[in-house]
Amino acid sequence: MVGWKVGRWKPWERLFVASLTIYSVGLALWPWWFVARQETVVLAPSDSVVDYLFMSGFYLLFVAAVHRLTEHESHAPIRTYSAPIGRWPGWLAPVYLALVTIAAPHLVWFAATAPSTAETRFYLASAVVLVALLALRSWLGTLESSYLFRQSVTDRLTGLANLRAFQSAALGLVAGREDSVCLIAADIDGFRRMSELGGRHEADRLVGHVAEAITAVVRRRGTAYRFGDDDFVIVMGGIGPEEGAAVAGRLLSEVESSVRFGALAVSVSVGVACAPVHGTQAEEVLRKALSAREWARAAGGARVRVYDEAEGAHVLDPVDRLERIRKGEHLATVRALAAAVDARDPHAPDHSRLVAQIARDLAREIGFSEERAALVETAALLHDVGKLAVDDRLLKHPYPLAPSERERIEEHPVLGEQILRSASIDEVLPWVRHHHERWDGEGYPDGLAGEGIPIEARIIAIADAYEVMITGRPYQPALGHHAALRHVELEAGGQFDPSIASAFVRLMWHATPTQPRDVSRHRGRS
Questions:
Q1: How far apart are CA 254 and CA 186, in angstroms?
Q2: Nearest 5°: phi and psi at 161?
Q3: Tell me, what DSSP letter sits at residue 384?
Q4: Which of 97, 129, 204, 399 is most exposed by smallest CB count within 10 Å?
């Protein structure tokens, strides 16, 4: 129950061991104490030592139990170990039980009728040993049953409760509760592709880290279950849809900040449904939480969706469902390509991700739908993928480039389009190709101007330029947040679309200023 390494025992475990030790000493002395009591009419205080031992043992056991129940550092369950009961012959247990049942009363009788004190003590000691062995076997059997039951309801990889545990507890999770309860369903975006790329060991590592993130967010406020490979469900009582969405948001942030696949930040899609708002039975609420999670994944992943009856009423037709599955499968490829680009410059590990976040928010600001904004985010993640085909020496050149070198750099939008043609995301190809075009027609690679530039490319252009300004370049110091926004205002109608530039400044002006990171001695050319 407490293990063999004394140095790892908690205070309550030390008290527990001390109580059992004291009680065991009293139990061992009891036969001799009994005989002495029979032979002595008046007992001295020293003759009651066994009573003192029993009472001390019980008292310490009570203190240990209270200490454990009030301990805040760790509420880990008591450790149990499998006993080798199952390896004993099947006939041994009933024969052993029968022998002890018959022998113990006879030994007590022999002790009571023995002609000498020595024989009395011998018979009593024998009876105590037999009873102790019976108790030991029962205790080992109880430990084995506890161990096997816990193994059956615990996921061995993560230590979370499993699907069987959820099914056993499902009846009482929602039905009959007076308070609200939320079910939060989450899975890892692109897990199948990452498993194929990294192998089973890497997949298990990812699942383990995501489980740790879930545990860190949930703590003692709820119970987390692992249903399958990357399928998690959290049950939290006393919260409604808004609080459930807030918890899901913290989970999303925790995973993105703490779990990585190589240089790639891992994300999750999360769905939330609550009782009694979305149902009164656990199965119904779970189904709706899973449905919300599928909508979050279909919208591009890395987001939280609360179940909406209007959306949930729709049943996707087979073609639409296949299309959403296809997009989900390509999500890991998109993020892996973006991570590969950023990994080439150790001083800009988050450039593509930051540009993607800014572009998505700007797309929303000018009225894009969630689905369209998600596509802009994908294109922004990939806007520099063509740099994979550009020489590292040019990207990290510490001085302004020569005209011939600059021409090589300016090929990266076209190279990016060519690389992405095999990724089955044709819709974003023009946006990647034209993200360096200028409103006044002085950009590259095709010299497009004004409305001839796809609006999505115009959005990415502003997001990219802003991120470059606040981080700097080898030949150019970083600007502050507001200074960068002033530059965007000045370039409206020249480098940038005036209306989008205005929306960007309006969106970002009161945002938390991003601290500039002057990497002018390290960064490569945009």
A1: 13
A2: -65, 155
A3: T
A4: 399
